[in-house]
Design goal:
It is a single chain. This protein is mostly helical. It has one domain. The chain is built from four helices and no strands.
C-alpha cells in the first residue's frame, strides 16, 4: 500500500484518495450527505485541509470521530 501522507502525495493524488475512500460504501459521495447527517459537515469542507496539505487525513478522521463520541 502506498503512503497517503501529505509529504508523499500531490494535491491531485489526495483528491483521488478522498474520492476512493468515500466511495467505499459503493457509490460516489455526491448527494449522499452521510457525513453531514452525522454532524461532519460537507465532505468538501471536511477534507479540504488534507487536500490542501495542511492537515493529515488521520487527524481529520480522529477529530470527526471524537466529535461523534463527545457530541
Amino acid at each position: 500500500m502506498r503512503s497517503i501522507l501529505i509529504k508523499d502525495t500531490t494535491r491531485e493524488e489526495r483528491i483521488r484518495i478522498i474520492a476512493q475512500g468515500l466511495a467505499a460504501c459503493g457509490t460516489e459521495c455526491d448527494g449522499c450527505n452521510g457525513c453531514d447527517n452525522l454532524g461532519g459537515g460537507s465532505v468538501e469542507r471536511m477534507y479540504e485541509p488534507y487536500i490542501e496539505g495542511k492537515k493529515e487525513l488521520a487527524e481529520i478522521n480522529m477529530e470527526y470521530n471524537r466529535s461523534i463520541v463527545h457530541g
